[in-house]
Amino acid sequence: MSAHVTATFTFDSWDEHTVLDTEGARIVRTSFAKSFAGDLDGTSRGEMVMAHALEGSAAYTGYERVEGVIGGRRGGFVLRHNAFLADGAGSSEVVVMASSGTGDFTGLSGTASITRQDDGGHTFTMDYDIEDTT
Question: CA of 62: how far to CAs of 26, 55, 129, in Å?
Fold first, then answer.
């Protein structure tokens, strides 16, 4: 079953701790929590490591555990994040971690994207499949 989800989310918490702050590099570890509304109704908690360098380049990697409801299905799954920005261009990869689905999301696979709106809001989209495990 191939499907598409669109939801908005807000950050409920953002707790950033500096790991390293030296010439040319600032590295932080961030714990966060989100609330989703839309095709995905739920919450998440996650951890990221972010690096900021000279000239405005930045990158992050992290993991996020999502719990919620999509199309009447209830369960959880883990998203793996990897992104960078350099010279005004960037790339982002958000993937459902293999075998991380629980409840009605057992067998879930997919890719997602996050768009930041001009007003500061965020939109989450995900294309996914759920393998029939019965």
Answer: 16, 23, 22
